[in-house]
Design goal:
Blueprint: E1 7-11, E2 14-17, H1 19-34, H2 43-127, H3 149-171, H4 176-186, H5 189-238, H6 247-251, H7 289-301
Antiparallel strand pairs: 1-2
């Protein structure tokens, strides 16, 4: 049987198909090809057998698509008639009715929203609440047809009562202006109070730190002054008394040796100055008063210049 005769459209939607009658033949042909031994000597024969199977399959696919087109063509024509005679008429009617219903519903929502908004403003004024804090936009009232006007007004009242309670709580705080400023930002009284408390805690900690630094500096300066005074007093107690000397002894010129005393006279050249270079160094010393006195005495006797600093 030719492949083109396996599937035939006789009468819509009746399709005569002969696939079941040739199924065994197709399966036997496939099994025969699959059973072929594919080696270097026979692989070309296997390739040809595979190509033959694919060719037969393509013929069947082409016939299947042709039958599909035959079936779909009449249906598409029927669908066009159906839409023009019924479908489009119903769809257009539905669109027109939806538009009319939506216009009425929008009007009802607007009317309900206006009533709720008027109640909101009236109740806000009765509570003497600031308009910027008790703003209708922040109330989050969603006006729908499923929600009654009474329930929507209850939402408005609940929002305004909460604002009133928040402001009363803020007024009782130690720093109401600061809390109110934060409340305007976060709309949460507990959060605003905590922000202000945290800020005051940081400010107080900074103030205590600064006072502690100033007190430590004052004590260090006092201690340094006491040490310096003690060293000066000790120096005055241990300074040797000046010895008396006659004017002649004090001002007597030093006799210079004559050439006769020193043998043959020779010209003497004074050596150039060999003073060593001075280097500054900074150190911090901690010790008892006795140790500090000894250190100071050592530096004075050794010709070491020093400057006393205070921490």
């Amino acid at each position: 049987m030719e492949n083109t005769e396996i599937i035939v459209v006789k009468q819509l939607p009746i399709i005569e198909e002969q696939l079941r009658t040739v199924q065994q033949n197709i399966q036997a042909l496939v099994n025969e090809v699959l059973a072929m031994d594919c080696t270097e000597d026979t692989y070309k024969e296997v390739k040809k057998a595979r190509a033959d199977l694919n060719a037969q399959f393509k013929e069947l696919e082409a016939r299947r698509k042709a039958v599909k087109s035959q079936i779909e063509a009449p249906y598409k024509a029927f669908e066009t008639v159906y839409k023009s005679c019924a479908g489009d008429i119903f769809a257009d009617a539905d669109r027109q009715l939806a538009k009319k219903i939506r216009a009425v519903e929008d009007g009802l929502r607007e009317k309900r929203a206006a009533a709720v908004r008027a109640y909101f403003e009236e109740y806000r004024e009765s509570l003497n609440l600031p308009a910027d804090l008790a703003d209708y936009r922040y109330a989050g009232i969603n006006v729908t047809l499923s929600a009654t006007e009474k329930s929507l007004k209850a939402q408005a009242k609940e929002f305004l009562d909460r604002i009133r309670d928040d402001l009363s709580l803020i007024a009782a705080q130690p720093d109401p202006d600061e809390v109110l400023a934060e409340y305007r930002e976060c709309r949460n009284v507990a959060g605003a109070v905590q922000i202000v408390r945290d800020r005051h805690t940081r400010i107080e900690a900074e103030r205590r730190r600064r006072e502690e630094e100033q007190e430590a500096l004052r004590k260090a300066q006092e201690h340094a002054a006491e040490v310096e005074q003690a060293i000066e007093e000790e120096d005055q107690l241990t300074m040797p008394e000046p010895t008396e000397a006659t004017a002649d002894e004090f001002h007597a010129p030093v006799a210079e040796p004559t050439p006769e005393e020193n043998g043959p006279y020779e010209a003497r050249v004074e050596p150039e100055s060999t003073a060593e270079k001075m280097y500054p160094i900074t150190i911090k010393v901690t010790g008892t008063i006795e140790q500090l006195k000894a250190l100071k005495k050592f530096m004075i006797e050794g010709g070491i210049n020093y400057v006393q600093l205070f921490d």
